[in-house]
Structures are given as structure tokens and as C-alpha cells.
Amino acid sequence: MELISIDVQNVLGVRAAALAISTPVTLIAGPNGNGKSSLAEAVRMALGGDVAARGVALKKDLQALVNEGAKSGSVEVQLADGLTAYAMLPSGKTTPADVYVPHRALAYVLEPSRFASLTANDRRSMLFDLMGLRVTPELVIQRLEAKGVDKTKAVRVGPLLRAGFDAAHDEAKRKATEAKGAWRALTGETYGAVKAETWAASVPAHDEATAKTLATELQHCEVALEQWQRQIGQLQGAEQRLAQARAKLPALQDQAGKLQRIQDKLVADESGLAEWEQRLQATTAEAGQGKRVGLVHDLARAVEFLSSNYGGELYEHAEALPAYEREHGKLGAAGNPEAQAKLPEVRKSRDLMVSAVANGKRDVEAAKRAQAEAEAIQAELDETFDAAGLADARAKADELKAERATLVKKLDGFKALKAQAEAAQKKTTDAAAHHVDVAAWDQIAAALAPDGIPGEMLAEALGPFNARLDQSAADTSWPGVHIGADMTVTWLDGRPYKLLSESEKWRADAMLAEAISHLAGLKLLLLDRFDVLDLKGRGDLLCWLDVLAEQHEIDTALVLGTLKALPASSEFLTAHWIENGVLGQLKAAA
User: Fold this and answer.
1) What would the 3-class secondary structure string for 286-341 be?
2) How does pLDDT run across 176-196, given as a tens digit for each residue?
3) Cβ neighbours of residue 282 closer than 8 Å, sequence gap 6 or more
4) b (16+ CB within 10 A) / e for 400-427
5) Of 86, 106, 362, 471, which one's alpha carbon is 20 to 30 angstroms from that of 327?
6) DSSP secondary structure letter of residue 568
7) DSSP letters along 176-237, please?
8) pLDDT tens-digit readout, 96-121
9) Which secondary-structure segment (H or E) carries 6?
10) Ramachandran region of residue 31, left (φ > 0), alpha (ψ -120 to 50) or beta?
11) Burial letters for 295-318: b for 16+ Cβ neighbours within 10 Å, e otherwise?
12) What are phi and psi of 91, to 5 degrees?
């Protein structure tokens, strides 16, 4: 990232600073409080695309970034690729994103101390991003599978990986704890990996062969019981039929005993009917012809007419007219009024006798049937009922029921034992499944721990990064700085960054910023306050930058610090003096 020129007007402590950059290293020196750090901050605003510097977060407060006495300020940084990055104050406008987008690693190059100030997790994420190692769920799941982790469970923690390894690691540990709790609840024992490997529930002893023998005996018993119960049913049916017949017999015998009397009455009724038939004929004849109306009388007159006129042709009807006259009298006879008056009563009496004869015949038939049924029942009752056989059958059935109850009780005991054995086997199987879950989740948790897959991926990222730091230490003759797997930044002697002196921290920050710039392909450095170094340290710094420029590993390096006088310029270094916020008041070279 080669810079061509920098122009800063009225920003912070800078009133006017315009410089053309013609060498890889540009050194800006001057007294304390004369605008060096302000110039560095201005460059950060333009190249970083962020004017919220020095803790100014609200737009209304941006006026505070404008040099005292001025109404507005500006920063323009021209790049070798023809682009210009700018920042305007107090509007806060910066180069549009469709024109210029700062590299994601640029902030750590423009502000070298920034990397060391990150948390371990943020530092890890930054290095992953810098080295192009994208921590995607798919990538981590592939690595988990390569370690033999259960794929189904690996997929379950996949979404949590978007929140980072820690979230997924904690979830795997929680799942392992849940599985241990399930194992403990099932077995009633404290979980232990060695114990769980061979744990088995106690299985009660049960003789399957004896159970089968008992089942066969029970089947035979039930078949025999069914046969005896069928026989009992048949005997009880016969006994019930006899009881019903015995109860019915008296009524039948009583009805059959009336047969003679009914027959005698029938004979008398038949004789009376004959008498009333004769009386009806006589009365009818005596009544003679009265006023006869109705179909029967009309037909009789028609037959009489036809017989008189066509007698031979109606021979087949010869009996019709005499039958009529027997009942109603001669057609042309003159009737007896007294007889005519008696005729309805006589006819009614005759009809009553007809009904009495019909009823008598019916009663005779019923009495005969009752007599026959009573004789049949009596014959059946005379036969001996096998009461002893019924009692014996009932006794046999009771014995078989008792035997069946005993067999069922024994079989229930065997079934209970079998159920307990099956439950124990299931408990053993379920406990083994929970143990497998514990092992699988523990394996995933271990793989997602910092020294697992994150450590492996970090080692891939840290290898080139630490190698670049080693190269910088060799080029500067400074003690090396190193980043551990736990993301701790340490000095060569193992001291962590926070325990380093100010100059040691500055050197560490410079080497870290150069490694980031190199690996990101930026080839840019901005090193402010280099005056914390002693004379030898400053010389080492300039020699290091010379080597980087000679190897074409840096395009532009801005170095700022307090000096009494400017160093001599060279083909790789140009020095500028800034005083009272104005760049260009030169001091003699030293």
C-alpha cells in the first residue's frame, strides 16, 4: 500500500502539513506537542475511514477534532493506485465505500498497539481472518468427523460454532453432563467412565424351560376343563328341561282329564244344533214370503224365472232354488206374520249352536293334545336322571379350576421374573447408550477445547505469523516476540506483554504490526513515538526498515517521534520536521 502524498489541514494539533512521499521510509520529527501524533491520527482517519478518533463518538463533538481557531479541517492521502482517501471535519465525511474500502487488517497496521490490546478470543479471530482460515461450521464438522466424532452429534453443535468455539465447547460439555445425569438416574449409581464401560444391571434367575412346561400343562388343563364344562352344560340343560316339564305336567293332566266331559258336551251341542236347524226350516217355511230385499233374494227370483222359462238349460242349478226355499220359504208363498217375527231369533239361536259345536270340537282337539303331551312328559319323567354324573362333572371341573389357578400363579411368577430380566437387559442397553453419548460429547468437547481443533487451526495460523516475527527479531537484533497457542503475546524470555517496559512494548507492537502488514499484503507501517527507543534501538529500527525496503517488503513506512534534529536522508529515507503544527521548518541533519 504505497502512499504518494499526505495533506493535513487544521486537524487536531496540525495546522498545515503537506508532504510528498518519495522514499519507502518517511520520518517526521519535531519537538513534543507540535503535531506529530496528530499527523499520525489524521492519516488513520483518512486511511481507516473513521473520524471517531480520540474517543469522539458523537457527530456533534467532531468540531473538537478541528485545530483551535479553525472552522474546518481535512485530510487527504493519495495512494499509488490513483485513489485518494480523505476525511472532512467537522462533517465526518470520508471516502465513499464504492471508491475506497480499508483492508480489514489496516487498523492493526495504522495503530500497532491495537493487536496486543485485544482479548485472546478477538486476537484468535483476527489471526484466523488474517490467514484466511474461516471458522465455518462445515469446516469444523469436517475436522470433527476426521477425529472419529459421531457425525449426528457434530452437526448438532454446528450452529453454535457461528458464535465461536467457546459456545460450541460449552454446549458439548453440557450435553455430556446431561448424558451422565441420565446414566446416573437410570442406574442409581455415580457415573464413572471405567465403571460405565462394563456396567450391567442385575438379571434375576428364571427357568425358561420350566415356564414352557407350565404353559403346556396349563393349556392341557384348560382343554380338559372346557370338556367337563361342556358336559356340565349338557347335564344342566337336561335337568332344566325335566324341571320345566315337571312344572308343566299338572296343567296338561288337568286339561286332559276334561276330555270326556268336553266330548259329552259336544254330542249334546251337535244334537241341539240339529234341532235348531229343523226349527229354522219350519219357521222359515211358515214365515213364507215377506218383503225380501237384497242380493240373495234377487238372485233367487232370477233363478226361479230362468227355471220357469228355460228349465232344461239350467239343470245344473236345480238344487239352488230348493236350498233357498228351505231357508227362506217359497218365493211366491204368502207368509205367516207371527212366524216372520220369530224367524230372526230362531236363526240367532241356530247360529249360537253352530259356534258352540265349533268350540266343542276345538276343545276336544286341545284336550287330546294335552293328553298326548302329558303322556310324553310322564314317560320322560319316568326315566332316571344322571344326577350323580352331574355332581361328578362339577367336582372334576372344580379340581381343574384349582389346578389352573395354581398353574396361572406359578406362570405369573415366571412372567414377572422374565419381565424383570427383560427390564434389566433394557436398563443395561440404555445405560450403555448413555455412556456412548457421554463419551461422544466428551470427545466433541475435547476437540472443541482451546488445545483441540482451535489449537490446531491456530497453529496453522500462528506458524507463518511467528515465523515472520522471528525474521523481524533477526533483522532488528531485538529480542523476539511470540504468540502462544493460548494467544498470549510474550517476549523472548517468556514475560507476557503486559509486564514489558514501554520500549519493549513499542518494539513488540512494531514487529506485530509489520507481521500483520506483511501477511495481509499491505506493505505499510505507521510507527509513532519511536523516540521511546534509545539511540541503538532507533538505529536498529532504521536498519530494519532499510532491509524491508531493500527486499521490497514495504512500500511506505511513516515513522514519527521527538528528535532534537533530523537524521540525514537517504535513497530509502526522507526526513521532515514539524513544529507548531506546521510541516516544513527544517532542522539541521544529525
Assistant:
1) HHCECCCCCHHHHHHHHHHHHHHHHHHHHHHHCCHHHHHHHHHCCCCCECCHHHHH
2) 999 999 999 989 999 998 989
3) none
4) beebbeebeebbeebeebeeebeeeeeb
5) 362
6) P
7) HHHHHHHHHHHHSS---HHHHHH---------HHHHHHHHHHHHHHHHHHHHHHHHHHHHHH
8) 988 999 999 999 999 999 999 999 88
9) strand 3-11
10) beta
11) eeeeebeebbeebeeeeeeeeeee
12) -65, -30
Smallest CA-to-CA distance from 374 within 364, 366, 386 is with 366
CB atoms within 10 A of CB 208: 11
Peptide linkage before 90 cis (omega within 30 of 0):
yes
Residue 418 has pLDDT above 90, yes or no: no
Under 8 Å CB-to-CB from 175, ≥6 apart: which residues? 153, 156, 437, 441, 444
How many other CB atoms sit within 10 Å of the CB of residue 445?
A: 21
Contacts of 394 (CB under 8 A, 6+ apart): 232
pLDDT band at 299 (very low <50, low <70, confident <90, very high): confident
Q: Copy the grid coordinates of residue 144.
A: 470433527
Q: Residues 438, 443, 444, 445: is their CA dihedral positive or negative? A: positive
263, 364 in Cβ contact below 8 A?
A: yes
Q: What angle do CA 89, 93, 95 make, to 5 degrees?
A: 125
Residue type, 297: H
**Amino acid letter, residue 13:** G
How are beta strands 489-491 and 14-20 bridged, if at all? unpaired
Cell triple for 88: 472532512
Q: What does the block give as the cell for 523?
A: 506493505
Q: How would residue 590 be classed by pLDDT, with cut points 50, 70 and 90?
A: very low
Fold for the domain defined by 1-103+522-590: Rossmann fold (3.40.50)
C-alpha distances in Å from residue 39, one per residue of 3, 8, 112, 505, 560: 15, 7, 16, 22, 9
C-alpha 284: how far from its chain's center? 106
Q: Dihedral (C-alpha) 143, 149, 150, 151: value to the nearest 10 degrees?
A: 0
Nearest to 397 by CA among 226, 165, 182, 188: 226
Residues of the chain with CATH 3.40.50.300: 1-103+522-590
Residue 74's nearest CA partner among 45, 37, 115, 52 is 45
Instruction: Tell me how crowded residue 369 is: count the other CB atoms within 10 A of its CB.
Output: 13
Q: Write down the residue that cell numbers 231357508 correspond to.
A: 327
Rounded to whole angstroms, how far apart are CA atoms 143 and 167? 17
d(CA 528, CA 562): 9
Element (H, E) at 29: strand 25-30
What does DSSP assign to residue 75? E
CA distance 517 to 228: 104
- Tell me if 560 sits within 8 A of 546, measured CB to CB: no
> SS3 of 460, please?
helix
Three cell numbers written together for 575 = 526526513
